[in-house]
Amino acid sequence: MNVLEALQERHCTRAYKPKAVDRETILKVLEAANNAPSWANTQPWEFYVAAGEPLVRLRERYLENLEKGISPNPDIPVPQSWPEEHKKRIFALGAERFAAMGIERENKEGRNEIYKNNFRFFDAPVVIFACLDQGLSPWSLFDMGLVSQSLMLAAQHYGLNTIPAILFAGYPEIICQELQIPDYLNIAIGIALGYGDPDNIQNKYLTTRRPIEEFVNLIGI
After folding, report:
1. Fewest CB atoms within 10 Å of the CB: 26, 96, 121, 138?
2. Is pLDDT above 90 for 106?
3. pLDDT band for position 1 (50/70/90)?
4. Which fold has domain 3-77+120-206?
5. Strand partners, 126
6. What is residue 182's predicted lDDT score, i.e. its pLDDT?
7. Phi and psi of 90, rounded to 5°?
8. 133 bridge partner residues
9. d(Cα 37, Cα 46) in Å, to the nearest integer?
10. Distance (Å, rounded) from C-alpha 170 to C-alpha 175?
């Protein structure tokens, strides 16, 4: 698979087969991702990979927090508002996804079940938590985005699927306890990794992309 194929085929996978990913393949994906660029070669990323029993415990504790009504509180605060054009795309994504799954707007139970899937990590066999030192500036989050995209493209090469999700990092105190992550690290995001189930309805819907004429400005070309 070449880079263009990986870019075109990568999509957020929200349902996975109950098939384990072997240690060697996970390490190959991470080794490839480690080639991502970073500011002054700082390489600010630290990865904690959860699978097996540790991931089972994370899933159980996440669902318990959800049932108790404990709101997620990730280390990296989520935006409180969006520009109008961005907001339109967010609303369109939700409406199109629910429509593709046959869930009516008034079906709160169905919508809640979809939301709950985030706290199960979409039943992926592996979740990778990308962390960085708390003393770093927001600029290092750009590097974290680069290495995360590199990881997801490398996963495509090895026949794996992924989804990055901020809710995976929603309860950092639980993650730190279960994975023994030191206090000086912030958990930037979680990335599910596994073999996607192409027959699951959640994987049938793919988001659209804006035409490049909307966001590319060619000057002097």
Report:
1. 138
2. no
3. confident
4. NADH Oxidase (3.40.109)
5. 51, 193
6. 98
7. -65, -50
8. 185
9. 15
10. 9
d(CA 150, CA 34): 8
Contact partners, residue 131, CB within 8 Å, separation at least 6: 45, 46, 47, 48, 181, 185, 186, 187, 188
Question: Which structure tokens are listed for 139?
Answer: 């600029």
Identify the residue whose tokens are 């992309």. Answer: 209
pLDDT at 16: 98
- What's the whole-model pTM score? 0.96
CB 41 within 8 A of CB 143: no
Joined together, the tokens standing for residue 89 give 């795309």
**pLDDT score of 105 more than 90:** no
Q: Of 86, 81, 163, 87, nearest to 118 (Cα)? A: 163
- DSSP calls for the chain: --HHHHHHH--B---B-S----HHHHHHHHHHHTT---GGG----EEEEEEHHHHHHHHHHHHHHHHHTPPP--SSPPPS---HHHHHHHHHHHHHHHHHTT--TT-HHHHHHHHHHHHTGGG-SEEEEEEEETTS-THHHHHHHHHHHHHHHHHHHTT-EEEEEGGGGS-HHHHHHHHT--TTEEEEEEEEEE-B-TTSGGGT-------GGGT------
What is the largest distance, in Å, between two alpha-carbon atoms of the chain? 58
Query: Are the beta carbons of 125 and 22 closer than 8 angstroms?
Result: no
> How many residues does this entry show for the chain?
221
pLDDT, tens only, 137-173: 999 999 999 999 999 999 999 999 999 999 999 999 9
